[in-house]
């Protein structure tokens, strides 16, 4: 290989970079390559087609028009109409191990780009870049997108769409010539944010086939793109979506683009998840202590904060084995409904005449932690804050943006507003024993100006700064990122929070799909998964406790239900389920997530397998009625082929509704080899729709 080239390799993937004619070229991102690569450049040097360039062109990483590129460039911007087209040359190429940092300069446009690639041991590729203005004049940066090449075998893309209470619906489609763009313009990542954009072959499934996944580490506006050009080349990319004039670099100033976090997997979509989860778990800041079983009181109380009622809930919570109780919206100044109070983060004496300390002590005395809700980036027009500082909202000209849930967005990019929120929330935290806060964000940002300029980027950076400062001031504080459910779940905010509220939809049947796809990138222990009420508040559906409990087990588990209404039998089941969660969370929160390619559409079979393949817990979830009398058997991949296992069904929260006279014999427990479990499997029982149960598999 030439001197200016680098091969980054993990067990599962490689990235090959080379400098060609002064351009930085990604020659390969995909399956691992080894050995002599000196001739790669010659091997894949393009031929010259009729009616084409006289010499091969190498647009490389920067994808520039000046190098013959006819698609969307990596960087676009201008210097008051000049410096609109660039030709960057590599000026420095530093390679060490699985890290490469490359400096590129355009001496005419007077810009410098430093791009770094890091491939970790799990095959997760990090791309980071900074753009620096080297001139005396301002440079307006319109866009910087990280791109990766896709081979022709990638014929499909998978991304995710959604809305409130129905996040992360998969969309799989053919890649055709043109550009497929998924934009987030909500000023938060959003319900409709694609947590990843994944290129696939037609055959790629959960368990097998190639997948090229990217995820943007950013909580503000963003876009994902898949581009196929008429010359046949195709690529996948993502970046921050900058609003007009949002980023004007002054002389010497740099822009740090959000990182792109990508995975190539030859082991299907589960291979992608395994890499993302391993990377997340290896971070120093990944929550280390067992994820406490949580009771969130929102759906039990809503705005009706009644101390006696709360004590009654806490008593049942203690009996059941809850480890953290959360007081949600409604505790602060004049917040009797969702029309007032946001912005005034002081305890309301009208509902809490003695403050929150007595109820916190009541909870703590039972050995339970206390958590509290905030929504610091928002303000109701009916609040003391807005009355005092109407100018502290994100707005443009003299317009007030349309209300959403009766609220406006506080411009925390404004130091005064930032300090107001920081000091008020911090004071509540300093005065009380609060282990955790749930930080909500219940509306989108529109017309979001900061002092006359677009303000989404500044707002996003401000919330990162605010979370970091709260954590610095209050050691051990855990933060849950909530945004009307799952509208701020992304790899940007993840380094500042310990949990995500996956969705406001607590209906277990809906949750099966929402959790299945959110966990495509996010490790399950970071996803709040609660047992909802018997009659779902979002869908009105009535579901068995066993279905709700089985669904809530696969995440950071909890309950969001008025458990004072639970029958004695349901409480008994909640207690055995709680104990089951505690006994098994070490496995559930560290093992490999497996989504079996079950061949029929009526069911999901998914689970977690220990990394040493000694144990596994699966859930069989019947979504719809079966078509056939004898549905496909349940087969379990990821086990050790030659080990013998005991497999049995378990019902920690009671039995599901069967539609059978005699259940399959294996459910009581049998021994089978790992190879028999994966190749032959066990008989699937017929359950009523929307029912589920757990399957335990352990080394015999
Ligand atoms: C939306 C959240 O997602 C809910 O869980 C709850 O906290 C409400 N906001 C409170 O207003």
From TrEMBL:
CDD domains found in the cross-reference section? GH36
* Gene3D superfamilies documented for this protein: Aldolase class I, alpha-galactosidase from lactobacil brevis, Golgi alpha-mannosidase II
Which catalytic reaction applies to this protein? Answer: Hydrolysis of terminal, non-reducing alpha-D-galactose residues in alpha-D-galactosides, including galactose oligosaccharides, galactomannans and galactolipids
- Keyword check for Chaperone, yes or no: no
Domain Glycosyl hydrolase family 36 N-terminal, chain residue ranges per copy: 23-245
Q: Which UniProt keywords apply?
A: Glycosidase, Hydrolase
Pfam family for this entry, one? Glyco_hydro_36N
PROSITE patterns according to UniProt: ALPHA_GALACTOSIDASE
EC main group: hydrolase
Give GO BP annotations, semicolon-separated. Answer: carbohydrate catabolic process
| Record EC number | 3.2.1.22
Q: What is this protein called?
A: alpha-galactosidase
Q: Which organism is it from?
A: freshwater metagenome
